[in-house]
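ok, trying the design again with the full structure, not the truncated one.
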């Protein structure tokens, strides 16, 4: 099982302390949470095929158009599905054996 390293850089720790944020432990690596399974990424990748951006503005406009074209409910369902998978990983404490 691979466990990611927590925020250990002095500058990062200092910045986190400035905001008084509580740093949560990183979950162990989970194949259940692979980003490639996340609906948005595969759909976006397909939409980007053959696209050639010339400027930063072209990228920004494409992103605005892409998200505007998505039905909010479909994205909400996908995010909900991902959240359930994440909760399952947390419940199992990263133990799959």
């Amino acid at each position: 099982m691979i466990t990611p390293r927590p925020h250990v850089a002095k500058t990062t720790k200092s910045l986190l302390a400035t905001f008084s944020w509580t740093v949560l432990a990183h979950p162990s690596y989970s194949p259940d949470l692979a980003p490639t399974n996340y609906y948005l990424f595969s759909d976006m990748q397909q939409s980007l095929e053959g696209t050639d951006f010339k400027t930063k503005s072209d990228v920004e406009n494409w992103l605005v158009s892409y998200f505007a074209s998505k039905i909010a409910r479909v994205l909400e369902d996908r995010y909900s599905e991902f959240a359930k998978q994440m909760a399952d990983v947390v419940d199992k404490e990263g133990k799959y054996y």
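Keeping the full-length input from now on. Residues 30-91 form one domain.
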